[in-house]
Structures are given as C-alpha cells and as structure tokens.
Amino acid sequence: MRFLAAGLLLLGVATLSAGCGTGQTGIAKGGDVSQGKTLFVSKCGSCHRLADAGTSGTIGPDLDGAFAGAKEQHFRQSTIKQVVYDQIYHPAPAGLMPPKIVTGADAASVAAYVASVAGTGAASQGAPPTVTAAASGGGGGGQAATGAKLYQSLGCASCHTLTGAKSIGPTYKGLYGSKVQLSNGQTVTANDAYLLESILDPDKQIVKGFKKGIMSATIAPGSVSAAKAKALVAFIKSKK
Ligand code: HEC
Ligand code: HEC
User: Is pLDDT larger for residue 26 or for residue 85?
Assistant: First the structure.
C-alpha cells in the first residue's frame, strides 16, 4: 500500500505543480478537521482502517499504513491533504471506492483530517492485517475446525455470513453443492474444486450480482495456502 500511496503522492505533486490539474477536482481549500473526523467515521470507516478515527474497515487500504512513508519523508500536510482530496474525487478506475462520497467543503474537511492524523502513530499501529501469517492449525483437530478459525483470522467473516444473509460476499450457508450462477452467464456446481479456486484465485470466476475485485483486494490471488484453502472448504461444506 505504501507503493500505491507513493504513486498517488507523485500524481498529487505533479497536479499541484502543473497548476492546472484535471479541471475537475480543484484544490482542497480550508476544511474543518473535527467535522472531517465525524464524516470520516460515518462515510469512510467501513472500508478504511485509521487508528485516530477508531475505524477498522478492510475493503480499502489501511490509511495509517498508506501514508506512513509519506510522513516519514516529511511530505507537507497540504500535499497529503490534496492527495486524499483527489482520491475522493477520482478513485482508481477499478471502481471499488465510489467517487465523490463527500464533495466541496466536506471533502476538504475529510482530507484535512486524514492528512493531520494518518501515519502519525507508532509504526505497529498502522500495520495492515497479514493474510498469510495466521493460524498454523493442521494437526489432528479436524479440517472444518481449522477452517472455522481461519474464517475468523483471515477476515472472511467480514464479508461472508453463515446465516444465509447476503453481505459484501455471498453467504456460506447452503453454498456447498448448490448451483452458482456466474457473471459470465454460466452455472456451476459449488463442489470442492470450485470452492478451492474461489479462494485461491478470487477473480477467476465471479458470482452473478457481485463485483470483481472486492474479495481480491483483501485476499490477493495465491495469498491463502492450498492447505488453508482446503480447511476453509471443509468448513464451508459443514455449513449446510
Ligand atoms: C466501499 C469502500 C470504500 C469507501 C466507502 C471509501 N474507500 Fe477509500 N479506498 C477504497 C479502496 C478499495 C481503495 C484502493 C483502490 C483505489 O484506489 O480506489 C481506496 C483507496 C483510498 C485511498 C488511497 C490509499 C493509498 O494506499 O494510496 C485514500 C486516501 C482513500 N481511499 C480515502 C478515502 C476517504 C477519505 C473515504 C471517505 C470519503 C473513502 N476512502 C471511502 C475503498 C473505499
Ligand atoms: C472484502 C470482502 C471479502 C473477503 C475478505 C473475502 N471474500 Fe470471498 N467473496 C467476496 C465477494 C464479493 C465474492 C463474490 C464475487 C466473487 O465470486 O469473487 C466472494 C466469493 C467467494 C466464494 C465463492 C462463493 C459463491 O457463492 O460461489 C468463496 C468460496 C469465498 N468467497 C471464500 C472466501 C474465503 C475463504 C475468504 C477468507 C480467506 C474470503 N472469501 C474473504 C468477498 C470477500
């Protein structure tokens, strides 16, 4: 994520020094930091972790982690503020972050707030959750039980329910053995092979009605080991 932030910062700096921008975003003027914090918590926190705001969303990058490098390199706060402001107006074309959630003075306030706090804490505070590090499991206890722990520790629970309710992703309840309609018009049976692939390479097949890139933004292709994926499939299987 530092890489992404660095790229955005370069863009932001280029935009500022060119003085003309894209003609759409404009310069972030003023902004009320405390108002920005309130707006951040309600509009951005569901997707972004930020220690000062106490939010823990994982769909977008951890903003402490994203801007820690910029803070270390003593980028001016106004530069970071402009980067955040630009991001609000022009998120990456992948489309996971909706554009213009807040605009004008509200956007300036959120940007001023994020610039004032992101990446200022201890380095450990901003550490993004690691997907590969969790749970060693494996021994005796049964695949499904290991899978249940991984379901929590790898963050699958934040997007998949066990109750039948649709969340950010489809529910696991009744998933195993069911017919799944894909966005390409095909229908497949949710057998072991399909479920394994859905975990190992999340963007390969997309369930109809869901967006590509949401799961892979958190669970990068190949980030879950085959052994863990098998345990997760055993767990999903048990949620009839
Ligand atoms: C629905 C989820 C979602 C919401 C809501 C959301 N974001 Fe994002 N955000 C993302 C995703 C996904 C990315 C990474 C991809 C991209 O750049 O679009 C991102 C990227 C960013 C980045 C760039 C971070 C980096 O690593 O360089 C910033 C800054 C940011 N968001 C700020 C905000 C602010 C401020 C708000 C509230 C006004 C907000 N986001 C609301 C999903 C979201
Ligand atoms: C940020 C949200 C998010 C996280 C975290 C996430 N998923 Fe998903 N998942 C989705 C979405 C959205 C879809 C539907 C789109 C697609 O098919 O990729 C999906 C699809 C799936 C499917 C196919 C479901 C079906 O109905 O066919 C499986 C299996 C799955 N995820 C397993 C997992 C596992 C296991 C984890 C944890 C290691 C995980 N997911 C983490 C969002 C997420």
Answer: 85
Q: Is 109 in the pocket of ligand 2 (CB under 6 A)?
A: no
**Amino acid occupying residue 237:** K
| Alpha-carbon dihedral angle through residues 93, 99, 104, 106, given to the nearest 10 degrees | -130
Same domain, 71 and 152: no
- For the cut 90, the answer to whether the pLDDT of residue 188 exceeds it is yes
Cβ of 44 below 6 Å from ligand 1: yes
Distance from residue 74's CA to the centre of ligand 1 (Å): 22
Asked whether residue 125 is domain-assigned, the answer is: no
Could you tell me if residue 131 is inside a domain?
no
Model confidence pLDDT, tens digit, residues 77-126: 888 898 899 889 888 765 677 888 999 999 999 999 999 999 876 443 43
Model confidence band, residue 25 (pLDDT cutoffs 50, 70, 90):
low
Structure token digits, residue 213: 């890139």
CA of 239 relative to ligand 1 center, distance in Å: 33
pTM for the complete prediction? 0.49
CA distance 96 to 60: 8
Residue type at 180 in one-letter notation: V
Say which ligand is closest to the CA of 117: 1
- Whether the CB of 134 sits within 6 Å of ligand 2: no
Range of the domain at 176: 143-238
